[in-house]
Amino acid sequence: MDIEIIRERDNPLLDRNEITFNISNTGATPSRDDVKNKLVAMLNSRYNLVVLGNLATEYGTQKTVGYAKIYSDAARAVEVENDYIIERNKSKPVEVVEEESTEEPVTE
Predict the structure, then answer these.
(1) What angle do CA 71, 77, 80 make, to 5 degrees?
(2) Per-residue b or e along 53-87, where b marks 16 or more CB atoms closer than 10 Å to that residue's CB
(3) How far apart are CA 17 and CA 45, in angstroms?
(4) Cβ–Cβ under 8 Å, residues 6 and 21
(5) Fold of 2-88
(6) pLDDT value of residue 103
(7) What Å distances lie between residue 67 and 103, 104, 107, CA to CA?
(8) Does an H or E element contain 103, and which?
(9) What is the pLDDT of residue 49?
(10) Collapsing DSSP states into helix, strand and coil, what is residue 22?
(11) ∠ at Cα 25 (21, 28), nearest 5°?
(12) N or C end: fewer C-beta atoms under 10 angstroms in the chain?
């Protein structure tokens, strides 16, 4: 997954930077968590300061256009963004799948 930043805009009124970016990927469309982690690494930010707005994959291509907002502090992000957007941008816990034992108990 390669991310190319198309446009970056400073928004001093809301105390954030707004970026529009392209994602070139092979295979399935990347998850919101994967995109957010990559943006955090690229922009030297923290996970709770980056808010993904939308991701739109063009039909028939492996190209996705996205919009993200990077806040200066977490309190400002919570103050400005709607609750459902904050909830959508929280990290998802990784589910651990336990394999069932195929062996039968030994009875004597």
Answers:
(1) 120
(2) eebeeeeeeeebebbbbbbeeeeebeebbeeeeee
(3) 11
(4) yes
(5) Alpha-Beta Plaits (3.30.70)
(6) 63
(7) 50, 53, 61
(8) none
(9) 92
(10) strand
(11) 120
(12) C
